[in-house]
Design brief:
By secondary structure, the chain is an alpha+beta fold. The protein is 36% helix and 21% strand. It contains 4 helices and 7 strands.
């Protein structure tokens, strides 16, 4: 049997990262319970959580609490969680982000100055994976860097 046509899904495609939740967990079960509480708050009690744990070392002095990595069991569950979190009014919603592979995170970091510039120019702009959407047109990092050098 040949598996050469099967696409391997990076494990981070199932993950979401929860930011801004107070870092008072003393046991792993407490972090897991916080993740389940979030699913109930999002009215998604049937979402299956594989794991939930804090990122970083405990006891480090940082300005923000350590984020919680929530590993879900399917990409569909992840999409539902992110979609539902955006329905909550901005002031009250937990900050959820996708867990991207390192290469994609690097590209997104490089796109941020272009995002800020577009928004400062009054344009509607957002990041979509490794692309920048400005006024409903998609740009890659390479496109933007080439335009900047012209």
């Amino acid at each position: 049997m040949c598996f050469c046509h099967i696409e391997i899904v990076p494990i981070c495609q199932y993950n979401v990262i929860l930011h801004g939740i107070e870092d008072g967990d003393t046991k792993p079960q407490e972090t897991y319970q916080r993740a389940y509480s979030l699913m109930e708050e999002l009215q998604l009690p049937n979402i299956n959580i594989d794991q939930a744990y804090r990122l970083g070392k405990p006891g480090q002095k940082t300005q923000n609490p350590r984020p919680i990595m929530i590993k879900l069991t399917s990409v569909m569950d992840k999409e539902m969680v992110i979609h539902k979190s955006r329905e909550i009014p901005y002031k009250n919603r937990p900050r959820l982000t996708e867990d991207f592979p390192p290469e994609l995170r690097d590209t997104r970091k490089k796109l941020i100055p272009f995002l800020i510039k577009a928004k400062n120019n009054g344009k509607k702009a957002s990041l979509t994976r490794d692309k920048l959407r400005i006024e409903s047109k998609m740009y890659s990092l390479e496109d933007l860097e080439n335009d900047a050098h012209k």
